[in-house]
Predict the 3D structure of the following.
Amino acid sequence: MSGMPCPKELQSKAKLDDVCFLTTGDRTAPGNYAMLDISAALHWLRENIGMFGGDPGRLTLFGHGHGAALVNHLLISPMSAGGKLFQRAILQSGSSLNQWATSTDSLKCSHELGRRVGCFNKTESSSSFISCLRSLSVEQLLNSSPSAPKYRTCFGPASNPFSGAIPRPVKSLLAQPMSVFPRAAVMLGVTKTDAVEYMNQEDIVTNMTELRKSQILRTFVHNTFKYQKQNIYEILAHHYTDWENTIERRSTKDNVLELLNDGLYVAPIVNVANFHSQSANTFLYTFTFSSGGETSHHLLNSPFANELPYVFGAPLVQKLSPFSNDFGKTARLVSEAVMSYWSNFAKTGDPNLPELPDSLDGTKNRFAGIKWPKYNSRRQSYLHIGKRPKVSHHYRGRHVALWLDLIPKLHKPNMGDDELANRFDLSTFDEPGRLENIDKILPFTVTPTPSATITVAVNVTKPSKINARAPPHMTTTPVLTSSFVSIPRQKASNIPFSDEKKGTSFPFNLTIAIGCSLLLFNIIVFAGIFYQRRKMNLLKSKREYSPGQAECPGTSRQTSSNSEEDKKLFESVNLLSKNDVEYSHAKHRCKDIKNCLKEHETIRLVSIEDLNEKIEPISMQHREENCTTMRDGRHGYR
């Protein structure tokens, strides 16, 4: 390989995805190396299985969770064309269409890893970048791995035209297969508690409030969808509410678990079954049995990977590590049926053949009389594996239709705001440090919390301990034997891809700029209005009459003759009150005596009696203009 294949040290560690899916987006490191390693192992198995009494023409590959997603990727990969690698597959709680099954942004994750270890430089070539990473130890790479957004995967399988494993987008390979996918028989299914791995311990053991439900749903919608986030949030919140029991907090917890389980597991699995059933035998199952019962109120007894103990026969033997020993008689019967179904499918491609035998203790197996029907997109028949097994159809049909029909129609670009309301308030989200593109939402870095130790499944031969609540971004490869080791988990509050970046976001800066511009505009407008009013007041005051100057409507000339006479006249008239004098002109009336006195103008002073009787003023002509004034006084003169 010309890129960076998985080192041997990583084959005994859980975080295979950190380096085995690293890519530069070109031919230097096309990525998907883990799939190439699995392909090489299958080639060896096919060539040598005959020496161990096996049939190379009847190889069945199955996996759980991320392992099932890898099996599905191999099914649709051109590397499996011709059916030489394997002929059948079992997908348990995982598929290629699960949103965590492929990388969110494989190239961005690779660059972020390089930046953290000091290897990434935009000006350098991809070859220099890979050479720098190769010079580091495995521990340095694992400890510097960026954390993925919640419900997503950072390093994982990704479509790349330079990679022979997944050369096209997953849906394109499903719809137009160029692999063994349309010919291989497939059995696939889910449990009703697969999504419990995304809920913390407090969510499981305590009743959930509406606030907590809103936080979980907001983070899920933000990291899952790109468009119409607020509308989708409101639809999901309304759909997954028990309107007949809104007071019961336990009901709220059940609704959240159902929402996550339907969106993250059920709908993608059903979608893959719809694609596959068009050309090959497909068998769908749902597993609901647990040692604590079949209700979701016993979540602690229904962990993630709940069906695995029954697949490997843990209830039939004592102390099969890493599984529990707390199994009853019914659990043993269920385990016998599950093992028979799985082995039948591996042998014949049909879980019904050969027929299920009676129980080991001689009792009749309650699964014996049930025929598992083939799945098709019209009938959607499936087998319900539980305390009371039965055949049914359209598993969670109304809810699956929401995810596969309504939401895809709504999830399209629009001209409005695609973001959630109140998205700047981190307290409204669950695990805000794992929000996708949080560096574009807030202008600061979230303070990380201390790291925690978790347990995940890896591909080694010696078993150890298991903790079923491994995070979804820790992947496992699809092999029949698994064991479990503990590794330190990345800090959950680290900001995905950019937890060391500081700076303001573009939307926030744009909002500030627009606000400042509007404020400046308002200041300029008010200043202009203030200046205009002051200017008008100054002009008005200048127009007031003064000796030697006359302003009357219709005239703008000043005269200087008879100035002494005008001064005496002004002094006499100035004693008058504005409310007692009126002026009339040929075209309009003047209410201010100072604005109507003119030079060489004749004024008639009348008595107070005349004024009370509203005697009209005498009009006199001066320079082709008429001004008449009335004045309050005891004597009159012309």
